[in-house]
Amino acid sequence: MLDWLWVIPALPFAGYIVLALAGARLSRAIVASVGVGSVGLSTAVALVAGFSFINSPPSNHVYSQTLWTWISVGNFTPRIAFYLDSLSLVMTLVITFVSFLIHLYSSEFMIDDAGYSRFFAYMNLFVGSMLTLVLADNLLLLYLGWEGVGLCSYLLIGFWYQDPANGRAARKAFIVTRVGDTAFAIGLFLLFTHLGTLQIQEVMQRAAQQWTLNSPLAIAAAALLLGGAVGKSAQLPLQTWLPDAMAGPTPVSALIHAATMVTAGVYLIARAHVLFSLAPPVQSAVAVIGAATLLIAGFSALSQHDIKRVLAYSTISQIGYMFLALGVGAWSAAIFHLMTHAFFKALLFLAAGVVILAMHEEHDMYKMGGLRRRLPLTFWTFLIGAASLSALPLVTAGFYSKDLILWSAWSSPSGSTWLWIAGLVGALLTSLYTFRMVFLTFFGEAKHEVNYTPGNGIRVPLIVLACLSLVGGIVELPRTLGGQPWFSEFMGSVFPALHYVQGHAHAELVLQIVAAVVSLSGIYLAYLFFLRRRVSADGVGQSMLGAALDRFWFGGWGFDWLYNKLFVTPYIWLARTNKDDFIDSIYDGIAKLNEVFYRALSQTETGKVRWYMTGIALGAIVAIAIVVFL
Amino acid sequence: MPVLPMEQGLILAALLFALGLVGVLVRRNVIFILMSIEIMLNAAGLAFVVAGSRWAQEDGQVMFVFILAVAAAEVSVGLALLLQLYRRLQTLDVDAASKMRG
Q: Which of A4, A174, A311, A394 is the most exposed, having the fewest neighbouring CB atoms within 10 Å of its CB?
């Protein structure tokens, strides 16, 4: 069954081609069945491939399939080839499954949109590119998928292109991620020049053989790859594009800007973990970036009014957790959190989409309220997603994955207490802003009449994702709760095991209880502030310091302001100054000089015969003098 | 026939030429300019004759006859120009004819 691996990315691409060529002439029902069907079939193939991979594992737990040689120049021969191991299998399953649910949701959610077929064409192209990214066997093909998802992200953020603000948001996302992608490309050049191949497994093998620990080349290569990952995954300092990316339709935010594309950076680092292990300073930088990002984004999420921007900052913050896990060497914990995050964050976005649809494109949470009774299914599923995001102990998937990260940050050889504290404060913030969102949106008095009932296309994805958000954690139970680390064992064929230095089961239990208490107290705080006594939250907001902090956090810690001052304004100034092209002035100067000569010489054209005669006489004298004396 | 000393003849020719040139440059009246050009032509002719006499060659005198012919033609054209100038501008001042000023 594994021979069919190539079909998984090929089907969405085929859907894209059909929709792009004939989409405008097809009826909506056919468009939906092509768009959803191609991804659905792809999901089915991926599931079958997954079962056969687990039941009868190929040798070394690796299956690789070469379709054809892409380019052949000297010893540079990247192939179109797919590589399936447990890491790419998990990524493929998560991507196809979540994509399928979101496509199903979109088929109903976008039904009134004029660009229905265009939407599905872009979405299918995205899924195909994302699958190419995770299945790629060499870094060049990975980069192709990487750029493909970037392009789709741009197209879908600016999907409603009539509004110039959406176009600006799309360009911002594209340009900011481009900064990271350039670093990534330079990293590829470096790897190829020094290791002579881009085939991922060979790169890792040769790096481990040729480069010693802490060698400058390894550090440079890892740092450049980190640059790419930071841009794509919206981490510090390139996180500014993600909140603005919410300009796109809500299913896009759920699929691209929460569940799949933004986690590509995490996948890249996990895929290149050998390289990062060779460069401990870079790996520590990954952890520090993750910790700083999760705090900064957590505070920002706390003061947003737009429900989608809260979720966007929350996504940045959760990817910060994944980076933290990668940075302390807990590779499989990062992928585990990536998976559970894909479930609950997609769920939250989809439920928020229903809320926004029911409120007639109203995004401001302060204008919502009391939706609990009007949208019961949406409320319950959103609540499950929120609980999972807040890592509500024992019953949610988010608890297991986040707890594993916190435990790794504490006990891994490269972890530290500070990273753990940052993660813990982040957990408090997470449950605080999440339940702020829940209370503001669904509780309190109703401010608008809502008469909207979602159909099956919306209900089914919500319910399935809600189930996964609850039970997705059973694949990795910590030893304090029975100890069934299936997921880590499954990942063991890809990642080296993490040896905990402070590894007492006793300590783990204590830390788990601390994390659980922190999560619950965040929820309780949100309850105090936003449900029982709204006044006190307003009181804090109106004090001098509170208001200043609120503004500061609302603007995302002033990063946009800073980048505007540092890069955008000088660049625009430079462009304006150089509007007439500096190089041109050289040629203009030559022309000007000629004109000066022309004017000077035309002064001698007096029309006076005697002057001409004088000229002739002097000329003759000079000529004769030259002949005679020289 | 006593031979004219060449140095004195050439000095006379140079003086005449210089006089003619100065006349062309400083006079504004077209008639005087034409006359000065005649003097310069004759100075050149004199130089040919002196040189021919020095080397006992007849070429010098042949050249002088050519110069006379050219001078006659030049004067006829010059006088025609002079008449046109006077008819159009009612003056013989060459500086008045400066319409081709750049």
A: A394
